[in-house]
C-alpha cells in the first residue's frame, strides 16, 4: 500500500511518494528494501497500490532489477486505506489463496512464513503483525508506596501496536469497504467475531515505521549499528 501523501515526511515527499524515500546510507528507497525482504521470504508476486506521485514509483520499478514480479495499480481518486486495499486485491494473481499485505512506509525483517502458519492455525480471516516500539521518552519505575526505583530510557511499549504487515484469507477482500478505512470498519467487525488474530513479532525482529525525518535518521543509525548498512 503506497498511495499516501506522506505529509509528515516533507520535504522528502514533495517530489516522491513515501515508499520512494531513501534511508540514508543504504542506496535504496524504502520499497526496495521491502521487495528484497518479501522475495527472501518466498513471495513471488507483488501488487503495489499507488496514488500520490505514482509516476515516480512506477518509473523506479520499471528501471530497477527486481527479485520478484511487480504490478502497479493507481487510484484515480483517493479511496481510503480500505478502498485502496480492495482495489489492489482485484489484481492479485491468485485470488483464491491467502495473501500478505504491507504498508509502504514500514521497514522490517521477520519470518513471514511463521506469521502465515500462525494465521492458518487460528483459522483467522485476517492476521496483523504486532510490534512493541520503543517509547520515545524515559520512564520512571515506582513501587506501591510511590517511591522511585529506577529511570529507564526509551523502554519498549507495554502495549503492542499494529505493525502494518498482514496475512489475509481469500474471503477478506470481499469484506473491505469500497471507500474508507478498513481499520475503522472491517477490523473492528472481525475482532468482535473473534476472526482477527495478532501475531507478535519475534524477539529481536527489526521493525520501524518511517513517518518523519527523525525516523529516517534513527533507522540509518540503527542499521549501521547492526552492520546492515
Automatic annotation (TrEMBL):
Keyword terms: Transferase
InterPro entries according to UniProt: Mannose-1P_guanyltransferase, NTP_transferase_dom, Nucleotide-diphossugar_trans
Domain Nucleotidyl transferase: 1-224
Pfam hit, one: NTP_transferase
Superkingdom of origin organism: Bacteria
Gene3D superfamilies per the UniProt record, alphabetical: Spore Coat Polysaccharide Biosynthesis Protein SpsA, Chain A
KW Transferase (keyword) present: yes
One Gene Ontology term of the molecular function aspect: transferase activity
The name this protein goes by in its record: Guanyltransferase
Species the sequence originates in: Streptomyces katrae
Upper taxonomic lineage: Bacteria, Bacillati, Actinomycetota, Actinomycetes, Kitasatosporales
Amino acid at each position: 500500500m503506497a498511495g499516501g501523501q506522506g505529509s509528515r515526511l516533507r520535504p522528502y515527499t514533495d517530489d516522491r511518494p513515501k515508499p520512494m524515500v531513501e534511508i540514508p546510507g543504504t542506496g535504496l528507497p524504502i520499497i526496495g528494501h521491502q521487495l528484497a525482504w518479501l522475495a527472501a521470504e518466498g513471495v513471488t508476486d507483488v501488487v503495489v497500490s499507488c496514488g500520490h506521485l505514482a509516476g515516480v514509483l512506477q518509473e523506479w520499478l520499471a528501471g530497477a532489477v527486481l527479485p520478484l514480479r511487480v504490478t502497479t495499480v493507481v487510484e484515480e481518486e483517493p479511496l481510503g486505506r480500505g478502498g485502496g486495499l480492495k482495489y489492489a486485491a482485484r489484481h492479485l494473481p491468485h485470488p483464491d489463496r491467502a495473501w500478505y499485505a504491507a504498508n509502504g512506509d514500514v521497514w522490517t525483517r521477520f519470518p513471514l512464513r511463521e506469521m502465515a502458519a500462525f494465521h492458518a492455525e487460528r483459522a483467522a480471516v485476517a492476521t496483523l503483525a504486532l510490534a512493541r516500539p520503543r517509547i520515545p521518552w524515559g520512564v520512571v519505575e515506582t513501587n506501591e508506596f510511590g517511591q522511585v526505583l529506577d529511570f529507564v530510557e526509551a523502554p519498549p511499549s507495554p502495549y503492542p501496536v499494529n505493525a502494518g504487515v498482514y496475512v489475509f484469507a481469500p474471503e477478506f477482500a470481499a469484506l473491505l469497504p469500497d471507500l474508507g478505512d478498513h481499520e475503522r470498519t472491517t477490523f473492528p467487525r472481525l475482532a468482535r467475531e473473534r476472526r482477527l488474530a495478532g501475531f507478535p513479532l519475534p524477539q529481536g525482529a527489526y521493525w520501524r515505521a518511517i513517518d518523519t525525518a527523525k525516523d529516517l535518521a534513527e533507522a540509518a543509525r540503527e542499521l549501521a549499528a547492526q552492520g546492515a548498512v
